[in-house]
Amino acid sequence: MRRIAISVAATAMSVTLVGCGVLNATGSSDDASPAKSDDITVGLLLPEKANTRYEQFDYPIFKTKVESLTNKKGKVEYANAEADAGKQADQMQQMIDDKVDAIVLDAVDSHGIADSVQKAKDAGIPVIAYDRLAEGPIDAYISFDNELVGEVQGRSLLEALGGDASITDKIVMMNGSSTDPNAKQFKAGALSELKGKVTIAKSYDTKDWKPENAQANMAEAIEAIGAGDIEAVYSANDGMAGGIVKALKAAGVTELPPITGQDAELAAVQRILAGEQYMSVYKSYPDEAENAAEIAVAKVQGKNIQFDALTRERVDSPTVKDIPAQLVPVVALTKDNIEDTVVADGIYDISDICTAEFAAACEAVKLK
């Protein structure tokens, strides 16, 4: 069992490994949900649309899996908050009023949503935190190993700089939203690799993860540092990487520095092929979304052995200890492994990636 402590106030995530048996499958009768049939409703609350993954992958994959697990009798009530914490609280209240059987929540504001989580608990509705760890009485959590994501990004940036990386190299850090606990973990992981090896000349927490905010921040960094003195850019995700590229090009930069990313968005995969972005972190959305659906359905139907098997790790939020959790592995995506990752998983067809504009770049890496 892997035990993880997550603190909103901390800049790092502490990890300790604790040995455990193969599976504690007994469950607790106190925690068990009443058994229900396949005729269930699972609420799915996603945080925003600026990152294309939520509408394109997470929701449809989750919905299909719930249907398959319930002989097509179960349904998903879906809402997207579009980066508005107040709107998400209203959406969650509506699901509570609708008496859904479980809520899978990807919080816009992990702290601000805590009261809504408590209201769901009071109404007897289990809440599964998805992708971001919300505060309040969460029943389970599924995400990726977020500090590892940052470590992979940081290591990749150093790799891109080659053996010549030194403390005199100036790096810009474009971190995610300050209201997202994942962003703090990505940053902590990246800093664990970069600190003492390069100079963080500018660092930004990007409001709402919006590419246009990252673009504005990057323009400010270029003005302060000088375009020619920026050796690399740590970008916490692909959407912001796109804004960073726009800012650099607007400043007249023709040979772009190495830029990281995350989420393997189609535009980012194409930028990687074209040499405008060094890498992205590929996270298997099918695995995360399908496993989240399994956790939610198992919880609703009182299948404690299955629930325990799916949530063998433990995390601590600022408000709750020992939350059952599952952390899904991640992969560094570069131009060399596109076919083995996003293509092999069916995220994109080669024809989606290798449009006429990128045909030569695809040919260069034998992607066809």
Write structural notes for this entry.
By secondary structure, the protein is of the alpha/beta class. It is built from 13 helices and 14 strands. The strands form 3 sheets. It has a 9-stranded mixed sheet with strand order 2-1-12-13-7-6-5-3-4, with helices on both faces. Strands 9-8-10 form a 3-stranded parallel sheet, with helices on both faces. Strand 5, helix 3 (114-122) and strand 6 form a beta-alpha-beta unit. Helix 2 (85-97) runs parallel beside helix 3 (114-122), helix 4 (146-161) runs parallel beside helix 5 (181-194) and helix 9 (285-300) packs antiparallel against helix 10. The longest helix has 17 residues, at 53-69. The model is unreliable at 1-34 (pLDDT under 50).
Give the H and E element order.
EEEHEHEHEEHEHEHEHHEHHEEEHHH
Fraction of helical residues: 25-40%
> Please, what is the average pLDDT?
90
Shape: globular
Q: What percentage of amino acids are in beta strands?
A: 15-25%
Overall number of strands: 14
